[in-house]
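Please describe the entry underneath.
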Amino acid sequence: GRTLILIHKSLETYMENCYDCIGIMICAHIVMHYHALMKRRNLGALVGFHNKLLQVLWPRFNYVLSLRYGGIVMVSFTVSVCLSISPTLTLPPSPSLSFSLSLSLSFSLSL
């Protein structure tokens, strides 16, 4: 009892300042894996504990993911606005670039 409560409280405290979306998803995946393992073995003692952990993890995951998505949308909007305002530049192809491409292609074909 006390150990599980300590783990739950520690997770809640850690999640308050956590912005690692991938880490939260990995933690949720691990909890779901052990939940499925306990279910397969017909051990229902930790089902409530797993549900409590997921109730802490998923809302935070959704919040952090929405922050990340909002940042990506703002960056892409800013870039598209900047690109539409800036003049269009077309550069002639570089001879050194075409030479390096043909050299790498011939090298890869000879192997």
User: Anything to note?
Assistant: The two ends are 63 Å apart (CA to CA). DSSP finds four helices and no strands in the chain. The mean pLDDT is 75. The first helix runs from residue 2 to 15.
